[in-house]
Amino acid sequence: MNWINFIIFNAAAPLPELHQISDAGVGENLMQLTPTRDAELIACGRANTTLGGQLSASPVVGSQSVTPAILVHGVLRALQAQGCKIRLHCYQLGLEQLPDFSGSVLDEIVCHRCDIGEEASLIHQQLLPELARQAKAGEGHVIAECGVGGTTFATLWLRRWLDQSITLAGSTKDPEKLAIKEKILAQLGQEFAHFPCDVHQFLQNHQASDPVQRALSALLMTPCSDNTTLELKLAGGMMFVAPLLAIGADAIKHRLKISMTRWVLEGNDAQAVLSKLPSAYTVTPSTTDFGRSSYRALHLYEQGYVVEGCGLGGCLVLAEQCGLSQQQIMDSLDAAVKPWLE
Asked: Sorted alphabetically, which PANTHER family does this protein's record hold (predicted)?
């Protein structure tokens, strides 16, 4: 059996009122629990961490859709049915609580945690050696993220490096939340307007970057101890593309393949941003049609209410490349959400 390593960076952006700009979270003062609960959903098909002392195992979110995490669970189950073994690598970046993986159906789980500002050390000590091991063993991998509020910082960086007018599709279409987000972006842009286009300055300031950006940047800019060049398979949407552009091709030490949902590419500014990527980086969108689902909650993805998250695009592309048909994939996604929607 072939091992697939699903690697996820979990974090919350350094914004005090995250619940006001994101539909991805679980409410005021609880946003840091979202990545933890999503990791549980990926492994177990349900969330085990309580919200304010109350158990809410359901993946249904405010837009009446479902979190991408439960769909990642469905794709990984489809891959298991094809004979793959799945190992989850959970990186808790600055999050206080570790996930409760009781009831996991995956084959193996590895969990690491670091404090804010220690992301690079964790990547150097744990992830780089592990990726080198996987490469030597012939194992596959996908590197994903669950960074609540992360599109805000991806937008901040892209506006600084590319164009001040850039707006990225995030987790909400709510006009009020989008207006608050734009106000926050304007404040952040003004605060860091004096910074040069030097990625190191943004990474060193914990209010000018988020933990996912710092972790990915450390991974991309650090060679393996034996100077082996890795082929990294990134599945982080625009949250991963922004650091690529800020770092620049000359400073990246590894080969890259990027996969994402096709809905990311349909965003207003996505094509303009992706056109700035060096030609050596291939971007592969998923093709699976969520209109085939039995559930409106999945149809909402096709309508742009959710565009990416938790490496969903990368998992879909991997399943498609492994030969799973659209119907096989959708059957597994429907099975994953059925207990919560009926």
From this structure: PTHR38811, UPF0284 PROTEIN SLL1500 (PTHR38811:SF1)
